[in-house]
Amino acid sequence: MNNARKNEIKDNAFKVFALVCTSVGLLVLGLLLYNIISVGLTRINWDFITNLPSRRPGKAGIYTALLGMIWVVTLTLVISFPIGIGAGVYLEEYGAKNRFAKFIEINIANLAGVPSIIYGILGLELFGRLLSLGNSILAASLTLSLLVLPIVIVATREAVKSVPNSLREASIGLGATRWQTISRIVLPASFGSILTGLILAVSRAVGETAPLIVVGALVYVPFAPKSPLDQFTVLPIQIFNWTSRPQSGFVVNAAAAIIILLLFVFILNGIAVFLRNRHNRRVKY
Questions:
Q1: Which residues cross the membrane (predicted)?
Q2: Whether residues 240 and 103 fall in one domain
Q3: Is the N end or the C end of the chain the one with fewer CB atoms within 10 Å?
Q4: Average pLDDT of the chain?
Q5: Cβ–Cβ contacts within 10 Å for residue 276, how many?
């Protein structure tokens, strides 16, 4: 049996193994989702969404956690996206292509893999203590901004890099400045791919719990936050709190909150995908 035949057999065996693992994983995920939906769907109603936390499972709601999560995610996007896109554009279009730039590029990529708990410790020391923001929504948003910035920067650089150089050369050849070329040609052409970074960043920011716990997110908040300096909790922490309770009613509440959290993520991702596809249909090059 020649080497080519052996390699073909190995490739086929690996494909079968990958297919089996994928099928088993999808089956387990499907059973898990079915169990969560069947348990939690009966608990979802308007009172569950608008009620404050309670020691009684039947009266407990997710209003404070949901509002806190919206506050944190919104501020995180407002802070991280302009900085991330600006840094990505600068590194790709203006930055010098030398060893130091390569070093920066490698470290930005490595930061995307740093455990989130490290960002929580950094946020606690830098924003919570040094800037005296305490356990506020703003401190949590700044911490999550540090967490998602590498994702946004890498996605922006790859999106800008994918724009053909012929478009830049044509724009400059017609008399446009470098900034005019970037703002009117490069960014519009790459905006659809940049939104991919938004999808990844939002998905990670919504599901993070460890850095928020370190920064000081509360487990029980009997009031709704009204400003970025208020104390807060988020939906993942509320779900964790309910699953640790001995009463079976709180387990049902946790399942219902998981469904709401999944819907929140799907809606945000759906909006980003819709905007990306709509933009890609309008921009052709």
A1: 12-37, 62-91, 103-124, 136-160, 181-202, 250-275
A2: yes
A3: N
A4: 83
A5: 18
- CA 139, distance to chain mean position in Å, is 17
- For residues 275 and 181, membership in a common domain is answered with yes
Q: 33 and 62 share a domain?
A: no
Residues 188 and 276 both lie in one domain: yes
Number of domains in the chain: 2
Q: How many CB atoms lie within 10 A of CB 115?
A: 10
Residue 151 C-beta-side C-alpha neighbours within 13 Å: 21
Helix (H/G/I), strand (E/B), else coil: 54? coil
Helical (H) or strand (E) element with 108: helix 99-111
Q: Given the structure tokens 């039947």, which residue do they identify? A: 58
Q: How far apart are CA 41 and CA 45, in angstroms?
A: 9
Query: Which tokens is 193 given?
Result: 């791919």
pLDDT in tens, 181-218: 888 888 888 887 788 777 878 888 887 888 888 887 77
Domain containing residue 58: CATH number: 1.10.3720.10
Tokens of 200: 């990844």
Q: 189 and 258: one domain?
A: yes
* pLDDT digits 0-9 by tens, 238-285: 888 888 888 888 888 888 999 998 888 888 778 777 777 776 666 555
Q: How far is CA 46 from CA 50, 58, 63, in A?
A: 6, 13, 10
- CA-to-CA distance for 246 and 284, rounded, in angstroms? 57
Same structural domain for residues 19 and 56? Answer: no
Q: Cα(44)–Cα(31) distance, rounded to whole angstroms?
A: 20
Q: Which amino acid is at 27?
A: L
Give the predicted TM-score (pTM) of the model: 0.84
147 three-class SS: helix
pLDDT tens digit sequence for 12-51: 677 777 788 888 888 888 888 888 888 888 888 888 888 8
Q: How far is Cα 82 from Cα 158, in angstroms, rounded to an integer?
A: 16
Judgement on whether residues 193 and 268 belong to the same structural domain of the protein: yes
